[in-house]
Predict the structure.
Amino acid sequence: MAVRSSMWLEYQIEANWTSPVIFILYNTLKPVGGSLLLLAMYYVVTGGFLGGESLYFLYIGNAFYMLVAQTLFNVGWIIHDDREHYQTMKYIYISPLSYFMYLMGRSAMRFLLSLLPLSVLIFLGVFLKIPYHIEVLLLLGTFFLGWIFVISSGLLLSGINMLTARHGNSVGQAFSGIFYLFSGVVFPINVLPGWASKAALGMPSTYWFSLVRRSVLGKEVDSIMSGFTTGEVAVRLIIISVLFFVISYLTFRLADYLARKKGILDMTTTY
Amino acid sequence: MNVMLNLRALKGRAYPRMIGAVREPSWMFWETFLPILSMAAYVYVYRSLDAPKEFEGFVILGGVMTTYWMNVLWGMASQLYWEKETANLQLYLAAPMSKMSILAGMALGGMFSTSVRCISIIVMGVIIFKVDFVVTNAGLLLGIFGVTLVALYGMGMVFASLFLMWGREAWHLNMIMEEPIYFLSGYSFPVKALGSLSLFATVIPFTLGLDAMRQLTFPSMATQWGLVSPHLELVILLVMSIILLYLARVSLDRMERMGRSKGTLTMRWQ
């Protein structure tokens, strides 16, 4: 019930300021802008838009990254929004609802809403002659595992936000930058320095993006990740995701405890 | 006009942002370190495509200017709306100083933390990515940088009034003024690549500023990828600065008049 209510709330906050058509447009413009940026970079170097493994790699990686970035952007803002904008955090805390479940519900809805721009980007990929080879079952599993890893990141971020002031509104977006750089989203991880490539293999996102490419393109073009079978990638993703979730949950609980202890649950910072 | 009063107001609004940055160092992580990671990813995209080294420098300079754009969006444009939501706006309007000095104070305070981030980006570019900046005309470069900031923050001041009038709709506008604007302004690539679309992109002040700064720091690419001459870009930016500051004043007055007559200045969560 709590999850359903918070999903409904997320949808209202995100969408009820305008008509559905404008909301869809708004929801799609940002991811499309991000993809065009990368296509322009590809164009200035190669002089064209078509062909090439690296184009498919960066286009698909970036399209799915928007799922991560958009969800984290919103989740990263929930604590500050509740605490300082609507000033409702203390009321949610004293209501018969778990704040943890509330965050789960809101992140789930944001994740679902982000599937729409992803579909648009996949459709636009047809014009770029992306050689789709979609494996539906694997893709569905990939979405589910992706949601686990994204909500774990969101929990970690929310825990940190409970203890920090509001300085800007894009902490979630900045946080997702870690995954953008270290997970082989838009370039193969062997391009990174040696230590960073090794660090990438400890991140759930690296395996998630590898599964994304396998389920959408039907193959893995990253030279390091292609050394793993699809089964190995999935098992590693599950193990690291579970570990990541446990760490994020414990961090969130600790931050929750410290925020209550310090009396900063209703802190307002108007920098 | 009481100059001292307005200078005190400017200092008063800039103070919490500067002192807040010192008191809560967590922003260094959120606002400086993490955003640099996304930008670094673009550098590695160019490396994976075996692009000329200058393109990596283009990304570094783009990262510097978009930092200011982000600050204009989140620290200026949406700030009056935020002040209304936190009930500070009514205090500003009741106080005797010009509202422009409040906005100028916000801009100055915001520039402090933003400049720290920019310096970090440049240091990272030089030390980690070994980007070689060849400054051909330091005076012109500084002039263009300064005028671009004035135009950018002038635009932020105009947006601040508009966003306040539009409420939550405008709040969401901030979101779509990130990636689409990065694309139009050529954040990570030379804007000339957009062809005739680049003409529309020049409405955003940092498009011209960024193009001029790239021409002045990477002269080997200026002929192939420069939009127009940096001198002409400086003139256009100067004109834009004057127009935007004038528009900021007009829209601020208009917003205040409309808000007073409709009684919406103290209405929250609209």
User: Anything to note?
Assistant: Chain A touches chain B through 51 residues (CB under 8 Å). Chain A is about 75% helix and 0% strand.
